Automatic annotation (TrEMBL):
Species whose genome carries this gene: Ferrovum myxofaciens
Protein name: Citrate transporter-like domain-containing protein
Membrane topology of the entry: Multi-pass membrane protein
UniProt keyword annotations, A-Z: Membrane, Transmembrane, Transmembrane helix, Transport
Keyword Transmembrane: yes
Organism lineage: Bacteria, Pseudomonadati, Pseudomonadota, Betaproteobacteria, Ferrovales
Transmembrane segments: 80-107, 158-177, 198-231, 243-263, 275-296, 308-330, 342-360
Annotated ranges, domain Citrate transporter-like: 4-302
Record has Membrane as a keyword: yes
């Protein structure tokens, strides 16, 4: 197991912030550690193990070859992958969608010189847009849906007008941000042998894994995935442990941050206040602490769940920290340059989400 991830700047920054906040507020240590949400880490770890199984089965280059046989330009490939991300995140969740499309995109690098960084960025934006349309698309929507007592169609009706505009904006961004350059395939490597047994076992475990998660048994779901890791130890060796540690540190740092102030101290926030102010606070706090903690932080102090839902979902754009889905996509890429490229596209899209969100409140 490699510990090179300990040298990553983001991880070191999170550690430094935690130590600094703990120094100024030492009594908050217990509360901050208590904020670690084990079910989230269990689900994330299990999904990573199952995804590793599919990756190590070597099936993805084969699937990528079939895809590239059907698309003829980078723009058509970008359309296909972006819409796959949108649809999967609407019916599943944003993180599960990324665990499907990002490994496939990374496999495409082996087959053709495609702009894979740009594709992953479109996918990250796509899952954030697609997931906001559904009450089960992301964790913040699941929580707000339960609070709202809206029906499943009722929640979709609340989010759809704005969400469809964002879909149109993302479609335009994909058209403008991708090249018409034809895809030139490398010579196919016939020496690749697909480990079909590993593939089918990994794929077959997804349904029971998700079933256990949906019924609140995330620990058993992780145990199921760990069984695959014991069957093939290489899965554990190449697991992105740095991502799990990063998520853990995010929970701790958000716990410290919450101990320094509460929603009552935010100007303009509270019962009967401006919906636009609430929307903007949802965005701002999401940019600082990510949109799921921002939702949990603000929900008790608002009587407009629509404004909050719009705000925290818009806050998933902009900085990578706005949505944990962004972090998952960028970490899976394992590339430093993609972090800068992501923000070049994500910030303008955040501005678009802010303007259109205000219009639909």
């Amino acid at each position: 197991m490699s510990f090179l991830w300990l040298k990553e700047p983001l991880l070191q920054l999170l550690i430094a912030l935690g130590i600094l906040m703990g120094f100024f507020h030492p009594t908050a240590w217990a509360g901050a550690v208590h904020r670690i949400h084990l079910p989230t880490l269990e689900v994330l770890g299990g999904l990573m193990l199952l995804t590793q199984g599919i990756e190590q089965s070597r099936i993805l280059p084969k699937l990528g070859r079939h895809l590239l046989d059907r698309v003829h330009s980078e723009r058509s490939l970008a359309r296909w992958l972006t819409w796959a991300s949108i649809i999967l995140s609407t019916f599943l969740t944003n993180d599960i969608a990324l665990f499907v499309v990002v490994p496939l995109t990374l496999a495409l690098r082996q087959l053709a010189p495609v702009s894979w960084r740009r594709l992953i960025i479109f996918e990250a934006l796509g899952v954030n847009v697609g997931s906001l349309l559904s009450p089960i698309g992301n964790p913040q929507n699941i929580y707000l849906w339960q609070l709202s007592h809206l029906s499943f169609p009722g929640f979709i009706e609340m989010m759809a007008p704005w969400g469809l505009v964002l879909l149109a904006g993302l479609a335009l961004l994909v058209e403008l941000g991708s090249s018409r350059r034809p895809i030139v395939l490398h010579l196919e490597d016939h020496t690749i042998t697909v480990l079909r047994g590993l593939f089918w076992i990994s794929l077959g475990l997804y349904l029971p894994f998700l079933g256990l998660v949906e019924t609140g048994h995330s620990t058993w779901a992780l145990a199921l995935a760990l069984g695959l890791g014991i069957f093939r130890p290489l899965l554990l060796r190449f697991l992105d442990w740095g991502l799990l540690v990063t998520f853990t540190l995010f929970f701790i740092d958000v716990g410290f941050l919450s101990s320094f102030f509460n929603p009552h101290q935010l100007p303009g926030l509270g019962q009967g206040k401006s919906h636009i102010i609430l929307f903007l606070w949802g965005i701002l706090l999401s940019q600082v602490m990510s949109n799921v903690p921002a939702t949990l932080f603000m929900a008790p102090e608002t009587d407009s769940l629509k404004s909050l839902a719009y705000g925290v979902n818009a806050g998933g754009f902009g900085l990578f920290v706005g949505s944990m889905a962004n972090l998952i996509a960028l970490r899976m890429a394992r590339d430093r340059q993609i972090w800068r490229e992501f923000h070049v596209l994500s910030f303008p899209f955040l501005l678009f989400a802010v303007v259109t969100g205000i219009l639909f409140l």
